[in-house]
Amino acid sequence: MTPVLNSEILMNVILMFLCYIYIVLVIFVSGKLGHLNISRRASRKFLHAMIGNLPFIIPFFTYNSFPLNFPFFVAAPFILVTFLASPYSPFKGLCEKVKGLADITEEGHQLGLVFYAISYTFLALFFSSKPYVIAAGILPMAYGDAFASFIGERYGKGKYRVFAPKSLEGSAAMLLASFSSFTLSLIFFSAVYSFSVFDKLLASLAVAFVATLAEGLSPLGFDNITVPALSALTFLALGGGT
Hints:
The model has no long low-confidence stretch (mean pLDDT 88). This protein is 70% helix and 4% strand. It has one domain.
């Protein structure tokens, strides 16, 4: 292995560990938000949103495909971490050591964060060379769902229920936040990958609609799977991945 190659791999490893540090800090801060009289639900949405920023780091990895897919290496360990922090963990003592994350997990669907980590890992495995596809799946969950929860709780009057209680106001916020966050991300990615944002606007709008429908129709916690998967597939189906 040449010195240049060694140096390049080292830089990717350093960036990967910086991502780990960022994720751990976000988990730590999320767990401490309760001391500021912020609900665990809001803390969980904060965690979702902040973790959702990771696709913006992916373009800086120079190894993003098999066998050295560093974005995948960033995401995959947190499937295990979130599972071990859940009530299903076989190591109950570990929950006490990661109490902040465990408390957030128990407040929502008990495997919701595990599903989120699985979705992120799956997208990173196949689309790390095109992180805007990952963003299509993750940002509607990160920011769209967070705004849906906030607006729905505070201003939701038009209630409906399929598997879980929702509101029309929350779904409208989901639609707007999903479209806005993803479209803004495309502006960033277009500077790196030289594509036209205008050409992907229709796909971005479709992603927002599908994400909103998936969030509104999914059982509690399962939107962490359905929203990323269906949003990314919609973007790909409409040519957004080209």
